[in-house]
Design goal:
The complex is a heterodimer. By secondary structure, chain A is α/β, with parallel strands linked by helices. Chain A folds into two domains: 193 residues, 3-Layer(aba) Sandwich (Rossmann fold), CATH 3.40.50; 92 residues, CobW-like, C-terminal domain (Hypothetical Protein Yjia, Chain: A,domain 2), CATH 3.30.1220.10. Chain A is built from ten helices and eleven strands. In chain A, a hairpin with a 2-residue loop joins strand 8 and strand 9. Chain A is globular and about 55 Å long. The N and C termini of chain A lie far apart (57 Å). By secondary structure, chain B is of the alpha/beta class. Chain B has two domains: 134 residues, Roll (Diaminopimelate Epimerase, Chain A, domain 1), CATH 3.10.310.70; 295 residues, Metal-dependent hydrolases (TIM Barrel), CATH 3.20.20. In chain B, strands 1, 2, 3, 4, 5, 22, 23 and 24 form an eight-stranded mixed beta sheet that branches. Chain B has an eight-stranded parallel beta sheet with strand order 6-15-16-17-18-19-20-21. In chain B, helix 2 packs across helix 8 and helix 18 packs antiparallel against helix 19. The longest helix of chain B is centred in the middle third of the chain and has 17 residues. The relative contact order of chain B is 0.14. Classes of the chains: A alpha/beta, B alpha/beta.
């Protein structure tokens, strides 16, 4: 009976703790099971435009959420998103909570028809957590986030080598092998390129299209992207009609689309790797705009 | 052509001439207020119609509710009300229903009055008055009619078997542990979302929504308003709402104007940066019509819902130790505020608890340090809990207050007993201190959170009497003069309309609310029962039957 229900893994933690980075890494990771749905908190600092990343293609389904109270909006985004997902052939959901959510409250919400909560993963920012725990506005919230986690994942230990975990008295429960698989190799020493000590991190950039682009210009632009751009997705109106763009690494697909139920938001989302030398992954937003919006 | 409105007394809200006996109007604009014998220079060469239908009445500036939600109201108003508090609605006064038996009797009446098979939506149930609710109780009365009983707080509802099958809810889908108690037909929290997503074809159907806005139009008129503020345009869906508002709340038969204040975080949702918000909001100005206008205003949110005890409180917090909620991380709120502050906007922030207020004051202080602004109109909306020290900060930072004073009436007794204790509960809506400090102070209904009746809000602010009859913090009472200012000129300042309305003086639009009794000299306990005879919007009379 229990296994009929689609499991939801919560990714929690305060603003800036690394939730979006973790989710971007997951999206860029070939190990992400094809039928994983990802619900991102749209209110986050880096928005991944839901309509741009969502696609019927090979990889995960991403939907955006925002904060709010049901009495103020008649419906809430989470139940709407789960109702949408229930119609799709998915095997699991990764849910990014809002930075101000208490995991236990969201956990309750995951007891939704067709779904069940599986685990609360909370990201702990090695640099700011101790201070935030004493903050008059968010201290009790950050403490609740830590208390309510099944698995605490440390982030930003590379920039804060002096951080001492025992100060936080965390409760780490990482015995569930499925759970670890879900979180990929974040804490596995055999996967150094994905470890949290790695100096690389991921960012996202959204380009909003305002005018039609010649198809050839779009193709040339996509060919010109360097290898730090891990993913590019979206819809672009060209002189040859609407095209869906889906690129992974150095390959990309460009498909003419005619039968969408409603017009998509036009533009491209780039997920790129940034490092010390190149903060924006070699992707200058102005450059994109200049190339594609002559 | 000139029209001379005569009255028993005209209350102008212009401190230089507080009273008069007539108002002279041309093309919807006041050309002179005062005594008719002084107006002859205007009338020498122009035809004058003397309108003496209000000769025995009191003419006030048109009332203004600076914060309500037409879209929420459009959803609620087509429903039937069974409520513990009185609601005066244009199609009938809803008498208070304060025990379970009376609830069942009224439900039975509604059931009998409705054609068979039509669904019945009831709003206003509250366990404190109406006893435990469940599916069997409703079905005992409404039998196989699809019936939905909505909690007063909006956060939960009960559905009959017939309603579930109408909405396509299969009880077998519902497992234990979900926020749905299927045995009792009870849906709450995200379970409520599940129910609403399936009830939407009935509650958000376009014709239903349009009918709801028509009812809102009546409610606003009957409350005596000539201006309102929609303080979160884009709550559900910006384009659908904007279009429906344009269709229903614009036109010669609409006796009021609406200041639209866009929901800031919804505006930039979906990949836009907060810093793009000011330009996006400015682009909305091109949509303005005569009655529906955006201004350089933006709505943002700090802490959680007051009715759900999710306001963020300073120590000692809630008695049971629970914490409120932030609607956005403090850093995110600050980033949004900074974007609009730098761009010169008037910012309205939803604050309910004293910790939410403290945070927002800290951010405002930071903004003043970064870029000092005068006359910025930063407004604290709702203003549930506050401290006397915060009143000084509000004044020092040049901000203003728009309070839902009705909290005090409906919730101060229960929050004193189960919530935060008597001291702080009695001092909700600390309005006397605001006025004494010289802060521009207005009051609102947040309709549908409170009745859209400015005279009722005024009654609460003046008497500070809660629903069990206790006077809470008499020191914070407003005088009748101060409370009338709150619902007229002060409200106009808050939503950026003071140059055209909010008082009666030469040059302003002829917006009046006509009363049978004088709200400044009547027994203050009778304020909420004063008859509103008509409103005048830009010179045109709209009688109230």
């Amino acid at each position: 009976m229990r296994n009929d229900l689609c499991p939801i893994t919560l990714i929690g933690g305060y603003l800036g703790a690394g939730k979006t980075t973790l989710i971007n890494r997951m999206l860029a990771d070939p190990e992400l099971p094809q039928d994983t749905a990802v619900l991102v908190n749209d209110f986050g600092d880096i928005n991944i435009d839901e309509s741009l990343i969502r696609s019927q293609s090979q990889d995960g389904t991403v939907l955006g959420l925002s904060n709010g109270c049901i009495c103020c909006s008649i419906s809430d985004d989470l139940s709407k998103a789960l109702d949408q997902l229930a119609k799709l052939p998915i095997s699991q959901v990764i849910l990014e909570t809002s930075g101000v959510a208490e995991p236990a409250r969201v956990w309750q919400h995951c007891h939704y028809p067709g779904f069940r909560p599986k685990a609360s993963v909370v990201l702990v920012d090695a640099g700011h957590t101790a201070l935030r725990l004493r903050d008059k506005y968010v201290g009790s919230l950050v403490k609740a986030q830590l208390d309510q986690a099944h698995l605490l994942v440390l982030s930003k230990t590379d920039v804060h080598p002096d951080f001492r975990l025992d100060r936080l008295q965390p409760m780490i429960e990482s015995n569930d092998p499925n759970l670890l698989a879900t979180i990929f190799g974040w804490q596995q020493p055999t996967a150094p390129e994905r470890s949290i000590e790695s100096r690389a991190s991921f960012g996202a950039h959204t380009w909003h299209q305002t005018q039609t682009v010649p198809l050839a210009t779009l193709q040339n632009f996509l060919h010109s992207l360097n290898d730090r751009v891990h993913r590019v997705k979206g819809w672009v109106a060209t002189d040859r009609g609407l095209h869906q763009v889906s690129g992974v690494g150095s390959t990309f697909a460009l498909d003419a689309i005619t039968d969408l139920p409603k017009p998509p938001a036009l533009g491209l989302v780039f997920i790129y790797c940034s490092d010390v030398d190149s903060q924006d992954g070699g992707l200058a937003p102005d450059q994109i705009t200049m190339t594609l919006s002559p | 052509m000139l029209t001379l409105f005569q009255a028993r007394s005209v209350i102008t809200m212009n401190p230089s001439m507080p009273r008069a006996s007539a108002v002279l109007v041309r093309d919807g604009m006041i050309v002179e207020v005062g005594e008719p014998e002084n107006m002859t220079p205007w009338m020498q060469d122009e035809a004058v119609v003397v309108d003496d239908q209000f000769a025995q009445s009191i003419i006030c500036p048109g009332f203004i509710d600076p914060h309500l939600h037409p879209s929420m109201a459009a959803v609620l108003l087509p429903m039937e009300f069974i409520t513990a508090m009185r609601w005066k609605l244009p199609w009938g006064e809803i008498e208070p229903v304060i025990n379970p038996e009376a609830f069942d009797r009224r439900l039975a009446k509604l059931h009998e009055a409705k054609p068979a098979a039509e669904p019945l939506f009831v709003w206003g149930y509250h366990q404190l008055w109406h006893g435990p609710m469940n599916k069997a109780r409703i079905q005992g009365i409404c039998e196989d009619r699809p019936t939905v009983v909505w909690h007063r707080s909006f956060h939960e509802l009960y559905m009959t078997d017939a309603a579930m099958s109408m909405a396509g809810i299969d009880p077998a889908q519902i497992k234990p542990g979900m926020q749905i108690d299927i045995e009792n037909g009870h849906f709450f929290e995200v379970g409520l979302g599940f129910a609403i997503n399936r009830l939407n074809p009935w509650i958000l159907a376009p014709e239903q929504y349009a009918a709801g806005l028509q009812r809102l139009k009546q409610v606003v008129h009957h409350g005596g308003h000539t201006s309102i503020g929609d303080l979160a345009t884009g709550l559900f869906n910006f384009d659908a709402e904007a279009q429906a508002l344009a269709e229903q709340l614009e036109g010669d038969d609409v006796p009021f104007r609406t200041r639209l204040v866009v929901h800031g975080t919804r505006l930039t949702q979906g990949g836009r940066k907060p810093e793009e918000g000011p330009d996006m909001a400015a682009a909305l100005l091109s949509r303005n019509s005569h009655r529906l206008t955006f201004g350089r205003h933006i709505k943002l949110f700090s802490d959680g819902a007051f009715f759900s005890q999710l306001a963020q409180l300073q120590e000692p917090g809630y008695i049971d130790g629970h914490h409120g909620e932030w609607l956005a991380a403090p850093e995110e709120l600050e980033r949004h505020i900074r974007a609009y502050w730098q761009a010169g906007y008037q910012i309205h922030v939803h604050v309910t608890g004293d910790l939410g207020l403290e945070l927002t004051l800290d951010i405002l202080q930071k903004m003043q340090d970064e870029k000092p602004r005068f006359n910025h109109g930063f407004t604290f909306e709702h203003f549930g809990f506050s401290t006397p020290e915060q009143i000084r900060r509000i004044k020092a930072l040049g901000a203003q207050v728009s309070a839902n004073v009705y909290y005090l009436h409906e919730l101060s007794d229960s929050y004193a007993k189960a919530g935060i204790g008597f001291e702080r509960a009695s001092q909700m809506a600390r309005l006397g201190s605001c006025v004494a400090a010289g802060i521009n102070t207005t009051i609102h209904s947040d309709f549908t959170m409170a009745p859209a009746e400015p005279l009722n809000s005024m009654w609460v602010a003046v008497n500070r009497q809660n629903h069990v009859g206790d006077v809470m913090a008499a020191e914070e009472k407003l005088t009748q003069q101060q409370a009338l200012e709150a619902i007229t000129i002060n409200a106009a300042h808050t939503i950026g309309l003071a140059d055209i309305t909010g008082s009666i003086r030469a040059g302003k639009r002829a917006d009046f609310t006509v009363l049978a009794q004088d709200p400044l000299t009547c027994d203050p306990m009778t304020l909420k029962d004063i008859d509103i005879e008509a409103t005048v919007f830009e010179g045109q009379v709209f009688p109230i039957a």
